[in-house]
């Protein structure tokens, strides 16, 4: 029982770290594109981050390793 709880706790923490990583990536890309092209910064940063999130979700679904 304790082993199963620990397993789900670590899966949840792993999911939070991945989500936080995508948030930090979005902020980095937004800051970078704000310096280059201010009007297109938000759409480009959002598109790149969303593409990587979708690829990560497809990987999780393909390998049946969805963390929650």
Overview of the molecule:
The chain is an all-alpha fold. Helices cover 84% and strands 0% of the residues. It has helices at 2-36, 41-62. Helix 1 (2-36) runs antiparallel to helix 2 (41-62). The chain is elongated.
Topology as H/E string? Answer: HH
Proportion of residues in extended strands: under 5%
Low-confidence stretches: none
Q: Quote the distance from N terminus to C terminus.
A: 17 Å
Structural class: mainly alpha
Q: What is the helical fraction, as a range of percent?
A: over 70%
Biggest sheet details: none
DSSP, total strands: 0
Rg (CA only):
16 Å
Characterize the overall form.
elongated
Mean pLDDT, as a whole number? 92
Count every helix, treating DSSP H or I runs of 4 or more residues as helices.
2
Question: Topology of this structure?
Answer:
Blueprint: H1 2-36, H2 41-62
Short characterization:
By secondary structure, this protein is an all-alpha fold.
What are its keywords?
68 residues; mainly alpha
């Amino acid at each position: 029982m304790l082993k199963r709880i620990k397993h789900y706790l670590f899966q949840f923490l792993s999911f939070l770290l991945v989500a936080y990583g995508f948030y930090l990536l979005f902020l980095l890309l937004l800051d970078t594109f704000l310096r280059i092209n201010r009007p297109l910064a938000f759409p480009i940063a959002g598109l790149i981050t969303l593409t990587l999130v979708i690829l990560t979700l497809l990987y999780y679904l393909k390998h049946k390793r969805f963390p929650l």
